[in-house]
Amino acid sequence: MGRLVVVSNRLADPRKTASGGLAVALGQALEASGGLWFGWSGHVVQDGTPGEGELHLSQAGRVQLATVDLSREDHDSYYLGYSNGVLWPVFHYRLDLADFDAGFIGGYRRVNQLFARKLAGLLRPDDTIWVHDYHLIPLAAELRAMGCQQRMGFFLHIPLPPPLLLAAVPEHEWLMRSLFSYDLLGLQSEADVAHFSRYVGTETPADILGEHEFRAFGNTLQVQAFPIGIDVDEFTALGRGRDAQEMFDQMRSEYSRRRLLLGVERLDYSKGLPQRLKAFRQLLQHYPENVGSATLIQIASPSRESVDAYATLRQELESLSGAINGDFGQLDWMPVRYIHRTVMRKRLPGLYRAAAVALVTPLRDGMNLVAKEFIAAQDPDDPGVLVLSRFAGAAEQLREALLVNPYDTSRTAETIQRALHMPLEERQGRHQALLARIKERDVHWWRESYLQALARAPASGAPGS
Ligand code: GDG
């Protein structure tokens, strides 16, 4: 069996709990094949030359880690500019937040070329290459241009928008054509696959060979949904740990007379935080029995702070939570606890378990792992209720959650009220069904089914194809 080579913008140490289930799952596959993990080192060289970067090699167990530094100019145009200022907003349906500065695309291409050059020197002919996420869409095309014929797959962690939204990106044809250099394209949901198929049908000369197979630009591409999961066993075990137990006990004693609602995410405009706070305010207005009791803990961990849209969002959230606390707060009770900090991963299961209701209400989300972590952390005898946006990829699977349209403030408030008053038997039934779903399609299922499909895909780079 050849090696697995994983390429992603950032690497995580697969041996550390803090890295999360995805890093651990990929780490296991890399470990099994004695593989290689390649990406950006996280270092920005202030006066570095664009398109250049030092390669660092190290070893984590059987896994080789290879990272490249980026010059300031490359980092700003590739990472902040094109990846997070164009692709992230557009792929989350936010054309209004996209900054189509013509200078960004050069950096995006340059860094993908740099990665391809550095990576090509480390590859073996029988490697299987698995590239992750929107930062690296053209990587396979760059590698193919250098003569690399290995099997290559791509997984997009964020949504793929409908064709007309995608077409707003000036370079959309080039980006989508680049995807045809891979052998397998993995997407999070069936909705994403449908968008891809419609794009290809209307905007490219592709032949649609089957539901999952497309031929264009001299290549055949398989496209399939592989909804990512969590490591349920690992997360359950984390919940039994001392840190999680302490967190749970602390929350339960502090909020013994209250009902706890919880939101946990990176501070990101895709996550629907202002809409959530407005729905919570309506809950207090329309159902006043919650005043003095319902408390929303909102963890918004810092993210991409040097992108303007994130700083604006932060101000909006501070002002909204301040206003709700000012309008409804009492001497011994504050309705919103807004925390702009990262909680230790080891403590998260305790926080989830203490909550009566989780509010996972993104405006758009590739999948959303917080929803799955919340389910895994619950006490099956007395589980909390998941209120989930229908616009999260996870909504395709988690049908027993209470699904909401986060733009509809009053119906969301009504649903939160329903969640707070759901009878025990119904909570148990829904939780049991949800737990079965996340166990069946956990992160190991995701990795294995993706890699099996990649191994079966007709290899476009193979000689003679
Ligand atoms: C992208 C896609 C897709 C959050 N706050 C803290 C913290 N977290 C952890 C959660 C969870 C992870 O971060 C967030 O994962 P999500 O899936 O919810 O969202 P994104 O970060 O946007 O991830 C998404 C995912 O990729 C995987 O494909 O599901 O749709 O957008 O694990 O627990 N962790 C800690 N402290 C925090 O304060 N330790």
Question: What features would you highlight for this structure?
Answer:
single chain, 465 residues, alpha/beta, ten-stranded mixed β-sheet, 16 helices, binds GDP-alpha-D-glucose
Overall description:
By secondary structure, the chain is of the alpha/beta class. It has helices at 21-33, 72-91, 104-120, 139-145, 163-166, 172-179, 190-203, 232-240, 242-254, 273-286, 308-328, 348-354, 369-377, 409-420, 424-440, 443-456; strands spanning 4-10, 36-45, 55-60, 63-71, 128-132, 151-155, 184-187, 207-210, 213-216, 219-225, 259-266, 294-301, 336-339, 357-360, 385-389, 402-404. It folds into two domains: 4-229 and 444-456, Glycogen Phosphorylase B (Rossmann fold, 3-Layer(aba) Sandwich), CATH 3.40.50; 232-440, Glycogen Phosphorylase B (Rossmann fold). It contains 16 helices and 16 strands. The strands form two sheets. It has a ten-stranded mixed β-sheet, with helices on both faces. Strand 3 (55-60) and strand 4 form a beta hairpin. 49% of the residues are buried. Bound molecules: GDP-alpha-D-glucose. GDP-alpha-D-glucose is lined by residues 20, 157-158, 228, 264-266, 299, 301, 342-345, 348, 365-370, 373.
Largest sheet: 10 strands, mixed
| Average of per-residue pLDDT values | 94
- Ligand species: GDP-alpha-D-glucose
- What is the percent of helical residues? 40-55%
List the uncertain runs.
none
Number of DSSP helices?
16
- The assigned CATH architecture of the largest domain is 3-Layer(aba) Sandwich
What oligomeric state is this?
A: single chain
User: What strand line-up does the widest sheet have?
Assistant: 3-4-2-1-5-6-7-10-9-8
Sum up the overall morphology in one term: globular
Structural class: alpha/beta
CATH superfamily of the largest domain: Glycogen Phosphorylase B
Count of individual domains: 2
Rg for CA atoms:
23 Å
| Beta-strand percent range | 15-25%
Report how far the terminal alpha carbons are from each other: 22 Å
Number of strands: 16
CATH-assigned fold name of the largest domain: Rossmann fold
Q: Give the C-level CATH assignment of the largest domain.
A: Alpha Beta
